[in-house]
Amino acid sequence: MVPVDSSQQGAHNKGLAPLDMQMQRACDALVQQVFHEAERLAASGLDQAHRLRDYDRMGRIALVLQEARRQRVQRAADAGVVCTVNCSSELGSVDSEGACVIQPPLVGLDAAVVRQTALRRGRALIVLVREPMTKAGLWPVVAATESVVVRVMVEPPAGEMVSSEQAAHEPVTELISMNWVMESVRALGDKAIDSIDASMPGAWRVDDLMEALLAVPEHDQLHQVLAAACKDAQHEPEPAQPRRTTKLGNPFSF
Fold it and tell me: Which residue from 229, 248, 195, 223 is spatially nearest to 72, judged by alpha carbons?
């Protein structure tokens, strides 16, 4: 057994106490259904536990975060309103609850601006990004971070007959339904899960899933898959080599 320096152990414990208190506040916010405060605290707590490689706490925090986001998504879905953002000047102006579809020429990374603004304002908002219609008549929907991108091709909203050339320049507003948004988010999250190599060590899967969850935070099952990967990582030795480059995609490609 490798000896543990008592001063380092004490510093580690001191670092965890504030995190535990933070997560208690997150749970209290959940009980009060203050989803935005619960999500903010739990997301921050998950990042802290990840930096500490504390997989036990990560697994438990992931489920708290899942519930906070479930409250947000449910409230947004109940609102039933779908708005669009079509230029960069509109990114910080969305103040409604429901769903927001970001359209060309904006890109996947722009979703974070809208999402974080809504969270700060306490607005229940689902954010989705679509790219120009393909020649096959499909809409690519995309979720991206600075490291990865998840992209799936979906059928456009019912009744959408705009050509691929028009779709790149003429945003659509009246045909996008909340059901279409929810199905597209589900497809993105499912694609992210399918892209994770199940044969990798648990710690590597945790890293990839953290990136995927940052890209598609509204996907319910991603939180559960992350919690399961944390459980695996908790009982495995930490890999000697760094995690491989994620296979989720290239954030700078179409």
Answer: 223
